[in-house]
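Hey,
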Amino acid sequence: MSELLPTNEYRDLFENAPCGYLTMGPDGRISKVNATLTRWTGFEADMFIGRRLHQFLNMAGRIYYETHIAPLLRMQGFFNEFALDFETAAGERLPVIANASERRDADGSLLLTAVVVIKATDRRRYERELVESRSQLQKGLATERETAELREQFIAVLGHDLRNPLAAISAGARILQRSGALQEHKHLRVLDMINTTVTRMSDLIDDVLDFARGRLGSGIVLNRDAGQPLEPILEQVVDELRTSSPERMIETSFDITEPVNCDRARLGQLLSNLVGNALTHGAPDRPVRVGAETKGGELKLWVANAGEPIPASAMERLFEPFFRGDVRDSRQGLGLGLHIASQIAQAHGGRIDVTSTTEETRFVFKMPLATATS
């Protein structure tokens, strides 16, 4: 210890420790005592030196120490958790809990016996606090279970209450389209707008639910299936986005020749979010390019757009929730799309990388083809 701390700091730690401390030489006489124990007992340090421990105990403590503690200490070299009653300078009883252990040299000769004591009242307070802390922990666990139940109820209610009105609107629009009741061009355009809005709102609800699950503990849940082709779901996502943004051009290049152990719906959601981001921030007069291929044991899916490069300050926060950057008023959203896409990528054991220059901004998702089924 003296090599680790300056002498004065070591002395301060010893003298003002929260416990009392004394040492006895091979002859059983006290050779050192700290200031804490002298304060508790009211005896000065020089009154301890050269005297035996039992001289500072009350009569019951002396008998117990001499007949029980001292013999066992000599036999086994230590004694843990024994109770003693010191007698203070004022003649008062001071209950303590003590631990004693011997120190011997290489030859087995006794060098000293160290005794550490704490006030029994401090020990009882510690035990009471420990019991209280356990009680608080149990209450906390009960609260956590209740929170988990509320979390699941919240997510279920959120999905139900948000999706039902959209389902009714979508069904009504489809009925009107099939019935032919509305034939005017402007009416048909309104129905197309309704369907597009329903699709967009459904995507936003998916993002909100996934964000809620992630933040409330459930995370992104996958339903992997390597036996179903991935390319059709990607084509479907692109077709839906072409319908919702007829003024924009989306070019595709898919070459998926190997099975992909993935959740196809989730990867469709990832692609939808990436393409939606490209449509929002890309140059409106340039196409959005989408590609996917299987090569070298991994799936690589990318979305690229022309336009202004992403600022360095924004690049660091792209995948943070609710970060939207500078977007046109017509494209305002929740700012969850890229965050959810990154979470889906991580759930598949993959990642999304971004590069952005004056020529092109490109998001690239990569994941291993043969990931163990989760």
